[in-house]
Amino acid sequence: MNWFQSISNSLGSNAWVSLIQSFLSGKKKNEPPPIVRAESIAGRALTMVIAIMCFLACLTAGAVYMVNQSASAWFNDIASEVTVQVNPTNTADLEKTVTLVSLFLAKQHGIAKVLPLGPEESAKLLEPWLGNTDVLDVIPIPRLIAVEINRSSPPDLAAITQALETNFANVTLDDHRRWRAELRTVTRSLALGGITVLLLVGAATVATIVSATRSAMASNREIVEVLHFVGAGQRFIAHEFEKHFLTLGVRAGLVGALAATLVFLLLPLVMRALGGGSLAATEIKRLIGTAGLDWQGYALFVLVVIVVASLCMLTSRLGVVRILKSND
Amino acid sequence: MESERRDTRDVIRFENVGLRYGLGVEVLRDISFHLIPGSFHFLTGPSGAGKTSLLRLLFMSLRPSRGLISLFGQNIAELPASERSEYRRRIGIVFQDFRLLDHLTTWENVALPLRVLGKSEAEYKSDVTELLKWVGLGERMYAYPAVLSGGEKQRAAIARAVIGKPELLLADEPTGNVDPQMAHRLLRLFVELNRLGTSVVIATHDYQLMDQTDAPRLVLHDGQMEVR
């Protein structure tokens, strides 16, 4: 007796165990034919419905997961940086002040990196609003110092702000608090919207699969009745149907999940092919990151297949019980 | 047969059984009889007299509107649904409409009752083959029901009902679609089965068939039963 047999014996008769056993042991040559008809019109229609709904559910789950990941990444990026601004108005030696402030900041506890931006880089930040004009050479542009925070040992930003105000004139620290609050609202809204869409698609998937499985079960009514009349118990009949519908659910679900996987694998390539340098592609990339999924995202697809196949199995069991009740 | 004493060894016992469908009139009224193990009976009567309904009551696919039915000494009203399959396994039934599964071959259909008992193919292979040869379906073992004639389907249905050597055999018009020669052959099968201890109830219109044995007749008429 191998390890799997001993586990399955302890679990008893279960369609999932039977399915895994048949995958591990392969189809036996002299195995009797399945009692439940392997191919039927209702079965083929059900396979197609499951594959399509599984594809849509995986796409939705993947997209929601990706947007949530991107939103968390934005939030982490923004939370790990503060900006110090040196106002050029009434500042005698701007370059010297920037250097002194940078040195001061670098000495503070919890500061990982200090990056003063040059006049050209600061001017470039205004280009999207003012364009590339000579105006940028004329107007006083504040100088920015990007400060990266050590997230494992963060600095006391209130004390640093106080110290900057005491030691330097026209220097302010922006810890992005307002921006972070807005971003938190946006990310939470995105997550909530995504989960709502996922729940709706999930509910539609459940309703469609339950309905299609019921139809398929109705076409198998005669088989249930004959088995019942030749003395098969409810457990035997339910197991035969569970095996059949679980296999069907897993196969169709895998087709849907694989199609969704292909979409997510090809999405970055498609985006690149559409023109990675274009503004649209850049904006999409900013919104949803690299447009690729990590392993946890793909693990969600496996979960979708398991849920969908289990749903088919459960609905078929309920169908058997309903038919048997009407015959008793 | 007419004994009023309740015998727990009775295969079948009906006491004042009545049956109506919905709010309609009673199709069976005050039916009382009992059959001892190893008995052989014909169930007859005009069309619509309630033969099939009575067989369905016996097979627990209908519940009586009133009265008591016992099978193998057990009041079926008190039998939990989970235990009914155990009792059904002790009964072989031949349906008027055969009820063969179209996606299984004749051989697989006949083997079905043994398969649901959890037996391996090796255990019943020779029995199924031998029985099919006996009922004249040796050449049609691997044919699907869709290509069988009415008589062949009927013989396959009979073979399926008797393959498990049931304690009680119920047959609804088992010779309705076969020629007299095959009808005689099938009757011999039922008699042989009866000789081995199986109680047999055959619902039929076929007087020629009934005349071939001196088995008692349960005659249904106008919803009531008399024994001849």
Q: How would you write the strand order of the largest sheet of chain B?
A: 6-7-8-3-9-10
**Strand count of chain B:** 10
Which oligomerization state do the chains in this entry correspond to?
Answer: heterodimer
**What is the residue-averaged pLDDT of chain B?**
88
Largest pleated sheet of chain A: 4 strands, antiparallel
How large is the radius of gyration of chain B?
Answer: 17 Å
* Ends distance of chain B: 11 Å
Please give a structural write-up.
The complex is a heterodimer of chains A (328) and B (228). With 328 residues, chain A is an alpha+beta fold. In chain A, 71% of the residues lie in helices and 7% in strands. Chain A is built from twelve helices and four strands; from the N terminus they run H-H-H-E-H-E-H-H-E-H-E-H-H-H-H-H. Chain A has helices spanning 3-11, 15-25, 41-79, 94-107, 119-130, 135-138, 157-167, 177-218, 221-229, 234-273, 279-288, 295-327, and strands spanning 81-86, 111-116, 143-149, 171-174. Chain B has seven helices and ten strands. Residues 1-6 of chain B have low confidence and may be disordered. Chain B has helices at 51-58, 81-88, 106-116, 121-134, 150-162, 180-195, 207-210, and strands spanning 12-20, 26-35, 40-44, 66-71, 74-75, 91-94, 168-172, 199-203, 217-221, 224-227. The radius of gyration of chain B is 17 Å and the shape is globular. By secondary structure, chain B is an alpha/beta fold. Classes of the chains: A alpha+beta (328), B alpha/beta (228). The A-B interface holds A 30, 32-33, 35, 37-38, 222-223, 225-234, 236, 324-325, 327-328 and B 59-61, 81-82, 84-86, 88-89, 91, 93, 95, 99-101, 103-104, 108, 111-113, 115-117, 121, 160, 164.
